[in-house]
Amino acid sequence: MAGKKQQIVMKDEVFYARLGKRIKELRTEADFTSAEAFAYEIKMSRTQYLEYEKGMDMRLSTLRKLAAVHNITLEELLKGLE
Q: Which segment of the chain is annotated as a signal peptide (predicted)?
């Protein structure tokens, strides 16, 4: 059983790392070279936002907020991350 749980945790880590890379790409595509400026623009702490770019787990409400800021659907944000 522990082996299966470890596999799930590893899959989650890979997923969130890919998601972090995706939100960083979206930020730079939106012409925000600074994560700090982007975090300020979306009213999120710089530290928290940078953690998300590094692959930290995030709530659904945060995912929805990031999708809305980039004017994309949640589906578009998550596409290809599995």
A: none
Instruction: Say what the pTM is.
Output: 0.83
The tokens for 75 are: 């589906």
**Alpha-carbon distance 24 to 57, whole Å?**
15
pLDDT at 69: 96
Q: Say what the pLDDT of residue 46 is.
A: 96
* Cβ atoms < 10 Å from Cβ of 38: 23
**Of 12, 14, 21, 15, nearest in space to 54 by CA:** 21
- What distance in Å separates the CA atoms of residue 46 and residue 80, rounded to the nearest whole number? 26
Sign of CA dihedral 67, 71, 76, 80: negative
Which tokens in the block code for residue 49?
Answer: 């936002």
* Ranges in the chain, pLDDT < 50: none
